[in-house]
Write a structure and sequence with these properties.
8 helices, Rossmann fold, 2 domains, four-stranded antiparallel sheet, alpha/beta
């Protein structure tokens, strides 16, 4: 099982990473919010260990971006902030559990195993349009009941369009949803994903609204 560790304290991160590896986990380690968001777009993780006090941007921004995509990956917050109000903010933002530094390694491993077990029973909203059904929790799309194989980027593009069906979604909004930021990828990248989705789902599923963006369903911008 692959875990993403988001922690800017090098000494602590190395200790946690080494301990997790001894307990049978594979670990990717990043030290800031920007790289965490990129890693969560490019890879699927069994869980995330997330520090809140990151350089540049709070760990809460990582959590917000993750949950904004209906990504139900379990998140265990690691932080030195031990006030009740801080814990409430983290849990309300979508964290699955919270452990305060300094912590005992065995408690960390136990809490991690617990949030991963609980995540298997989590229910997320299912999105549907015409003959398409998208299940965010299972990362599955079906067309007329048949599974459709989509890349991670295609899936996120389709999910945002289905979530906002009937409304126009701009290229910048799609870039933000797919990559966690806009203006940092090639100008035709989203158009390529739209083309691939039309090829797999049908030419008329996604409409181009010239000068604005793309839309599933509806007749007005």
């Amino acid at each position: 099982m692959n875990i993403l560790l988001v922690e800017d304290d090098t000494m602590l991160a190395e200790a946690v990473r080494d301990g997790l590896r001894r307990n049978g986990f594979e670990v990717d380690w990043v030290g800031d919010a920007a790289r965490a968001k990129t890693a969560l777009v490019d890879h699927h993780y069994a869980a995330v260990l997330l520090d809140l006090g990151l350089p540049g941007s709070s760990g809460l921004s990582v959590l917000s971006t993750l949950r904004g995509r209906y990504d139900a990956t379990p998140v265990l917050i690691l932080t030195a902030r031990d006030k009740l109000s801080d814990r409430i903010v983290g849990l309300d933002a979508g964290a699955d559990d919270y452990i305060v530094k300094p912590f005992q390694p065995d408690e960390l491993y136990a809490r991690l195993r617990a949030v991963m077990r609980r995540s298997q029973g989590r229910v997320s909203p299912v999105l549907s349009y015409a003959n398409l059904v998208l299940d965010p929790a299972r990362r599955e799309v079906t067309r007329d009941g048949e599974a459709v194989a989509l890349s991670a980027h295609e899936f996120r593009t389709l999910m945002l369009l289905m979530e906002r069906q009937g409304r126009v979604v701009t290229r910048e909004q799609l870039e933000e949803a797919v990559y966690g930021s806009s203006g940092t990828i090639e100008s035709n990248t989203i158009a390529v994903y739209i083309h691939q989705l039309r090829r797999k789902l049908g030419e008329h599923v996604i409409a181009t609204v010239h000068g604005y963006g793309y839309r599933i369903g509806g007749t007005t911008a």
